[in-house]
């Protein structure tokens, strides 16, 4: 490769032009890319900062929601009475006649909970009386819910046949491990 002094004038201009282009790239492009990278990192940091701020702000809402719902054990502290009694009381106050009521045997749900249910059939009822009955069941203050509902419209106006399942959940206390006095045989 020939030295710069030995090059023809045209080749010198081309080398100088290439050097100018290279210098412009170094002077302008590298700082522009660095600036874009730093700007992107700054936006990323702002997004992370906002996410942390949102989490901190949500903690108060979560604590308020947990306080509103209460502790799980406190929800199950008010054990539901026998479902037959609860259903009969709600049906009488709503003015509904229950045709058939069948209790389902309790089913264990995990180590601490059991589920008991009763299936009932109402042959003929109006919609308002049915809504009042269901509202009394749901607002009984016990861990009780209507888990199945099947309504059939009858020929008469405002008359329905209804089959539903009402379920209650009970919490049993965990058995405490038996403690033996010190020195006693095990």
State the CATH class of the largest domain.
Answer: Alpha Beta
Could you tell me how far the N terminus lies from the C terminus, measured between alpha carbons in angstroms?
A: 97 Å
User: What kind of sheet is the major sheet?
Assistant: 4 strands, antiparallel
Strand and helix order: HHHEEHEE
CATH architecture of the largest domain: 2-Layer Sandwich
Q: Widest sheet: strand order?
A: 1-2-4-3
Count of domains: 2
Secondary structure: helix percent: 40-55%
Strand elements, count: 4
Structural topology:
Elements: H1 9-69, H2 72-75, H3 83-94, E1 100-109, E2 113-125, H4 127-138, E3 144-153, E4 160-171
Antiparallel strand pairs: 1-2, 2-4, 3-4
Helix pairs in contact: 3-4
Describe the structure.
With 186 residues, the chain is of the alpha+beta class. It has two domains: 62 residues; 89 residues, Ribosomal protein S6/Translation elongation factor EF1B (Alpha-Beta Plaits, 2-Layer Sandwich). It has four helices and four strands; from the N terminus they run αααββαββ. A hairpin with a 3-residue loop joins β1 and β2. α3 packs across α4. It starts with 8 loop residues before the first helix and ends in a 15-residue tail after the last strand.
Which tags fit this structure?
single chain, 186 residues, alpha+beta, Alpha-Beta Plaits, 2 domains, 4 helices, 4 strands, 48% helix, rod-shaped
In summary, what is this structure?
The chain is of the alpha+beta class and 186 residues long. The protein is built from 4 helices and 4 strands; from the N terminus they run H-H-H-E-E-H-E-E. It folds into 2 domains: 8-69; 83-171, Alpha-Beta Plaits, CATH 3.30.70.60.
């Amino acid at each position: 490769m020939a030295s710069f002094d030995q090059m023809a004038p045209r080749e010198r201009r081309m080398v100088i032009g290439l050097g100018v282009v290279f210098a412009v790239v170094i002077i302008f492009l590298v700082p522009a890319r660095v600036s874009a990278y730093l700007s992107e990192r700054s936006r990323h940091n702002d997004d992370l900062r906002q996410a942390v701020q949102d989490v901190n702000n949500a903690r108060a809402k979560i604590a308020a929601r947990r306080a509103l719902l209460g502790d799980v054990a406190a929800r199950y502290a008010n054990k539901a009475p026998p479902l037959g009694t609860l259903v009969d009381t709600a049906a009488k106050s709503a003015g509904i006649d229950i045709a058939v009521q069948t209790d389902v045997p309790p089913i264990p749900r995990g180590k601490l909970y059991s589920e008991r249910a009763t299936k009932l059939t109402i042959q003929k009822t109006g919609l308002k009386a049915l809504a009042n009955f269901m509202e009394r069941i749901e607002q009984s203050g016990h861990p009780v819910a209507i888990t199945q509902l099947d309504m059939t419209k009858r020929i008469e106006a405002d008359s329905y046949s209804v089959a539903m399942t009402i379920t209650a959940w009970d919490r049993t206390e965990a058995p405490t491990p038996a403690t033996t006095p010190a020195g006693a045989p095990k």
